[in-house]
Specification:
- There is one protein chain.
- By secondary structure, the protein is of the alpha+beta class.
- The chain has 21 helices and eleven strands.
- The strands form three sheets. Strands 1, 2, 3, 5, 6 and 9 form a six-stranded mixed beta sheet that branches.
- A hairpin with a 2-residue loop joins β5 and β6.
- The longest helix is centred in the middle third of the chain and has 28 residues.
- The radius of gyration is 25 Å and the shape is globular.
- The protein starts with a helix and ends in a 25-residue tail after the last helix.
């Protein structure tokens, strides 16, 4: 698939509209290549999870966005009903999985953000048994889902709205709504195309509103009954968002693999003149080696974490809130590592790190989107820490409780517990002192989980050591304050681990198996020459193309 014409095209040279259409084609091709079925998306088979860490997912961030919406949020939600109370939906799910129909998931509103339980979009039961779907104000429009007509394919959406029966609000419910026929919007549905996000592959994000759209009785997914646990039922209806937290968070794994491979090959290729007057690759400098090897170590360790997290998430004996908590911890730490690596490695590529054709700037922007989609990390962190301090449930304990990361995690939560318990106002103390540290606390849990998984699954010791040191450095003050390590000791530990891993660089790069997916032209002279021949040329008749020297000391062009 990577060698197909779909992925050989350099999308950065295309117009926005052409790029959007190309991303839909790529999303369809990836999905069909993996052969995801209703069974896979309903039962969350290994095939479903593996799709998200396929390196091809990071070649086009827009395609991966469209794919996860289509297969997880839409097909996954509908499959749950198709397998139980709505067998009539089976054919629609299959159409969505074949990309004969585009599916969208309209949940978040422009004026609500994370406070989506209090959404304003309404669906009023009519005497005929039909529903009147309506957007009261512009701020109540559904925000982000790409609902504009595309490729002549019909589009349906799962739209969440407050259900009103006889004037009584019965809480948010999902409705299946026809959005457009691929050419024109359906009656009463308006989609306003938003400008591109900037920095990432463009998705045709939109604002979607409804003006008294009449829906048939079958549009309601679920029943009309009034619930005495509205919020819990609502969370249950959007359970695929939690699946997405873990699934799209895992895209950070091929992201780290791709960014580290591109950087490594460039660092090997790019030469400068040393203090002794001879040409040396910039890889010979510790300034390049440190962020590179840390990123590689994180890619291997997070792969182990993902495997462990899937087992936890699929364990139906665990409280569903525990499973969601594990997903939140994984997403937080995966995004944290990927974003730091994308930024650090691109900076060390100089001006080349700024260009879209070299991928790292795009990868950074794509992962920014991941951090918000299917559960904003900060919001997930605040909820998880609040529940933990209230002892609502307990996440899986460390398999290495005497390790430094486990001790760090316990200490952070002990400090937070003492802070809120010593206050006369739990809520105020939490918001004032604990809330600003929630993401750090959740990341500490993620670090510990990743370390435990890597050790338990036998990840190479030098990579585990590098991962451990990096996690310690995120809050080095705590370790120094507690007398566990000195700053000098941390630096020497890092140097020892790096020295053990560096001789294995080419072996580690090969083990990641991403080379066939790399499109960046700066990984070799041959790739750069091939790329440069595709660039528009502005010249004069007298100008001559300079001959390529056999040895170039300053190779960044």
């Amino acid at each position: 698939l990577r060698q197909s014409n779909l992925f050989e095209k350099r999308s950065e040279l295309l117009s926005r509209d052409a790029r959007v259409l190309l991303s839909y084609e790529r999303a369809r091709a990836i999905g069909l290549a993996h052969g995801i079925t209703l069974h896979d998306t309903l039962d969350l088979t290994q095939k479903f999870w593996d799709m998200h860490i396929d390196p091809i997912m990071v070649l086009d961030g827009a395609a991966s966005t469209l794919l996860t919406i289509q297969y997880n949020l839409v097909a996954g939600t509908l499959a749950q009903y198709a397998a139980t109370t709505r067998p009539d939906l089976v054919s629609l799910v299959e159409d969505i999985l074949r990309w004969d129909v585009i599916g969208q998931f309209c949940l978040t509103e422009l004026g609500r953000g994370l406070d989506i339980f209090r959404m304003k979009t309404s669906a009023t039961l009519l005497p005929t048994g039909e529903f009147d779907l309506h957007t009261p104000l512009p701020s109540d429009a559904k925000f982000m889902p790409p609902t504009v007509p595309v490729k002549g394919l019909p589009c349906v959406a799962i739209v969440f709205a407050q259900l009103y029966v006889n004037g009584e609000c019965r809480g948010p419910r999902p409705f299946l709504v026809n959005i457009n026929d691929g050419y024109h919007m359906c009656n009463g549905v308006t989609s306003r195309l938003l400008p591109p996000r900037g920095g990432s592959a463009p998705v045709n994000h939109a604002l979607t509103s409804f003006h008294h759209v009449c829906l048939p009785p079958s549009a309601l997914l679920g029943d009309l009954d009034k619930s005495n646990r509205m919020h819990r039922d609502f969370m249950s209806s959007i359970w695929r968002v939690a699946v997405g937290s873990l699934a799209i968070g895992s895209i950070a794994i091929p992201d780290l693999q791709m960014s580290s491979y591109i950087a490594a090959r460039y660092f090997q290729r790019r030469h400068v003149t040393s203090v002794y007057g001879n040409p040396v690759p910039i890889l010979s400098y510790r300034t390049q080696q440190l962020p590179l090897l840390h990123a590689i170590a994180q890619a291997f360790v997070l792969r182990a974490l993902y495997k462990w997290a899937i087992e936890q998430f699929m364990d139906k004996n665990l409280d569903v809130r525990v499973r969601h908590g594990v997903a939140a911890c994984c997403k937080a730490v995966m995004v944290q590592h990927a974003q730091f690596a994308n930024c650090a490695l691109s900076e060390r590529m100089g001006a080349q790190g700024l260009f879209e054709y070299n991928r790292l700037s795009n990868l950074y922007s794509d992962i920014r989107g991941v951090s918000i989609a299917e559960g904003d990390i900060l919001g997930l962190s605040m909820r998880l820490v609040g529940d933990t301090l209230a002892q609502t449930y307990t996440l899986p304990l460390s398999t290495h409780p005497d390790g430094p990361l486990a001790l760090h995690e316990i200490s952070l939560f002990d400090e937070a517990t003492e802070t809120v318990s010593s206050s006369s106002d739990f809520t105020q103390a939490f918001m004032q002192y604990v809330q600003p540290r929630c993401q750090l606390m959740v990341e500490s849990m993620g670090h510990r989980m990743a370390y435990d998984a890597a050790v338990d699954q036998g990840v190479s010791q030098c990579l585990v050591d590098l991962y451990l040191i990096n996690a310690i450095k995120t809050d080095a003050a705590w370790y120094v304050e507690r007398g566990i390590f000195t700053r000098q000791a941390i630096m020497r530990m890092e140097d020892t681990a790096l020295s053990a891993a560096l001789p294995r660089l080419d072996e580690l790069l090969a083990a990641m198996e991403v080379e066939p997916y790399v499109t960046s032209p700066i990984i070799s002279d041959e790739c750069w020459q091939k790329f440069s021949r595709t660039l528009p040329v502005y010249s004069s008749p007298q100008a001559e193309e300079p001959a390529q020297p056999t040895l170039v000391l300053e190779r960044a062009r």
